[in-house]
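**Paired protein data**
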Amino acid sequence: MQPGLVYALAAAGIWGGYLFALKRYFAGIHGAVLTLFVNISAIAWYLPVAAATGDGGIPSFPTLSLTAAGVLAGTILLGGAGFLLSVRALAVGDVSYVAPIAKIVPVFVLPIEVLGLGAVLDPLSVLGVGVATTAVYLANYEGGDLVEPIRRARHSRAAQLALFSAMLYAVSDIGRRLVLGDYTFPTRVWVPTFLGGVAIAVLPLALRRWPSEGVRPHLKLFAISGSGVALGEHITALAFAAAPASIVSTLVNGQAIVAVLLGCVLLGEPGLRRRLAAAVLAVVGVGMIAV
């Protein structure tokens, strides 16, 4: 299995555990406040470790062409905007309708990469992306008609926001691939740049949703979570630098399957059979991609 796929699968495991921790330990904290402090914590963890373990410390910020600088800025802004829209979608709609739609990011990444960037994927890999994406959708699905979340997107404001969020995340993932792969942007510079950019993007919403009890009671958990986010973002960056965005995005979004399985097993949430089936389907999809 090529290194990019290994990194993507490892990132899915880390992010899935992080999503589970959010549900388990951060209930009631607004996503923007959480993201702001966790990202700041992640940068604080990442910079000294990256400086100590890298040859010559952290590289200086590279000189970029105007196009590369625009792609870098757009990638960060779209990632932050995608997050804010997903938070808004969850605030105004049912999770059962929002979550499946918000996780179909690879559906948009694949045609953009193949038709827009001329990427070449063999038919089996394309089918594997479809199978794995279906698995992510199934893992987030909460019951009823399978196509109801998509059908409702025509009339539901929450579903429309979730769909637009998925589109923005897809373009952001394409941007990551360009920045880290084609433009060879240093990973050790990318991680704090991206985390810091997203933190700035969510700052206005975080200030509006500041918890009444303050953030002091949660600082220890923010610090612990930041270490996981720093590691996850680094490994995700390595994956995008080494493999096509459509494949990496598909595998990394498998984090949803990890999170819901942990929720079913450790928290007794319903839907274990369906989510186990989704996990099996995801493994099949990964196998088709890796062949």
